[in-house]
Design a protein that fits this description.
The strands form three sheets. The protein has a five-stranded antiparallel beta sheet with strand order 8-9-7-10-11, covered by helices on one side. It has a three-stranded antiparallel beta sheet with strand order 1-2-3. The longest helix is centred in the first third of the chain and has 12 residues, at 50-61. It is an alpha+beta fold. The protein folds into two domains: 3-133, CBS-domain; 139-222, ACT domain (Alpha-Beta Plaits, 2-Layer Sandwich). The protein has seven helices and eleven strands. 22% of the residues are buried.
Length: 230
């Protein structure tokens, strides 16, 4: 999945000299939590968040009247408390690469830049979540989701797909990864306009030895319930 398809391109940004009061108003008016700070050439030089301002204001305004608080926020520039040289990512990258960078750098958003390092978008953790929901098919109200743990050898996934083909159901998504134990984890989502065919496919695959769970209509059914040590 390309970052281009999931980033917000109409990015609100501020110059380094923008006051914290201006930043706070932008946060409130636009329902956002972070602002890239850019220079005159649109190069990203910093990042400021609503939590940065919240953390700054109490320690500088304890015991002061509200007007004095506003004066301090109005006189303090973003560059004084912003994160300098934040982690960015090029627009030609993938959402998967962006998610990996967020994990490695422990950040919740990435300003997106072009080849000249100029700001062209922003990608947040919520954009990553939306991409995950989309690719997994979780947002689709209809159909059946089933997950299997299979041997990592040729033909194991084909066997399941052939069963679905037999009943003429439509496959929405197929996700497959190799887990740490060397087994293949597979999630399949399928549906059919023919409710009987969908039910028959479900009942057939319920007997598969590798089944871990199946879900339909928001309800999840585990084959083996975990034994929690409480």
């Amino acid at each position: 999945m390309l970052i281009l398809d999931w980033m917000k391109s109409n990015v609100i940004s501020v110059p380094p000299d923008a006051s914290l009061l201006q930043c706070r108003k932008l946060f409130k008016d636009n329902h956002i939590g972070r602002l890239p700070v850019v220079d005159a050439d649109k190069i990203v030089v910093g990042l400021i968040s609503a939590s940065d301002i919240n953390a700054f204001a109490p320690q500088r305004t304890t015991g002061l009247e509200i007007l004095e608080v506003l004066d301090i926020l109005g006189e303090t520039p973003a560059k004084q408390i912003m994160t300098v040289d934040p982690v960015t990512i090029n627009y030609k990258g993938t959402v998967e690469q962006a998610a990996q960078r967020m994990i490695e750098k422990r950040v919740a958003c990435l300003p997106v830049v072009n080849d000249e390092e100029k700001l062209v978008g922003i990608l947040t953790e919520w954009d990553i979540f939306k991409a995950l929901v989309s690719i997994s098919g979780a947002a689709m109200p209809e159909g059946v989701e089933m997950a299997f743990k299979l041997e990592n050898k040729r033909g194991t996934l084909r066997e399941i797909l052939d069963m679905l083909k037999e009943y003429g159901v439509r496959i929405s998504t197929v996700l497959s990864i190799i887990s740490d134990d060397g087994m293949r984890q597979v999630k399949i989502r399928f549906w059919s306009e023919d409710a009987e065919a969908e039910n028959k496919a479900l009942e057939k695959l319920k007997d598969h030895a590798g089944l871990r769970y199946w879900a339909r209509g928001g309800e999840v059914y585990l084959r083996d319930k975990p034994d929690f040590k409480l």
